[in-house]
């Protein structure tokens, strides 16, 4: 059983920054792509950013230039640095990991951008 545990969410003012972390633990054979998704109230879950095991990244247009995804393969951890946050970034942020046999999801962490 593999578990993903996110941390780092919270309340931040517009223009501020946050750093999310997501650590995988359990019976890990190998992790391929890892990523961050978000879901705002009334909206579908959407991709924020993904990163391959070889550290190739992909971003949603709405976060390009503001968010940075990275990972530490030795620690089975993926990070998301969020700068210049906007009110529309408010959502529950979920990490996921493409394992050998399935995709695992974290429980989500709330990010609220408000003054």
Describe what is shown at a glance.
This protein is an all-beta fold and 115 residues long. Helices cover 0% and strands 57% of the residues. The termini are far apart.
Please explain how this structure is put together.
The chain has 115 residues and is mostly beta strands. Helix content is 0%, strand content 57%. It is built from no helices and 11 strands. The chain has strands spanning 2-7, 10-12, 18-26, 31-39, 46-51, 57-59, 67-72, 77-82, 91-99, 103-105, 109-113. The strands form 2 sheets. Strands 2, 4, 5, 6, 9, 10 and 11 form a 7-stranded mixed β-sheet that branches. Strands 1-3-8-7 form a 4-stranded antiparallel β-sheet, with no helix packed on it. The N and C termini lie far apart (40 Å). 29% of the residues are buried.
Overall pLDDT: 96
Helix tally equals: 0
The separation of the N and C termini measures 40 Å
The proportion of strand residues reads over 45%
- Care to count the β-strands? 11
């Amino acid at each position: 059983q593999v578990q993903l545990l996110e941390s780092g969410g919270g309340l931040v003012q517009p223009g501020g920054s946050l750093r999310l972390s997501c650590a995988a633990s359990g019976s890990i054979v190998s992790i391929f792509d890892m990523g961050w998704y978000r879901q705002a109230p009334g909206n579908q879950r959407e991709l924020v950013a993904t990163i391959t095991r070889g550290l190739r990244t992909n971003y949603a247009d709405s976060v390009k230039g503001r968010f940075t995804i990275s990972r530490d393969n030795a620690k089975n951890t993926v990070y998301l640095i969020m700068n210049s946050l906007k009110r529309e970034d408010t959502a529950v942020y979920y990490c996921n990991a493409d394992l050998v046999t399935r995709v695992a999801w974290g429980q989500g962490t709330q990010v609220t951008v408000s003054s």
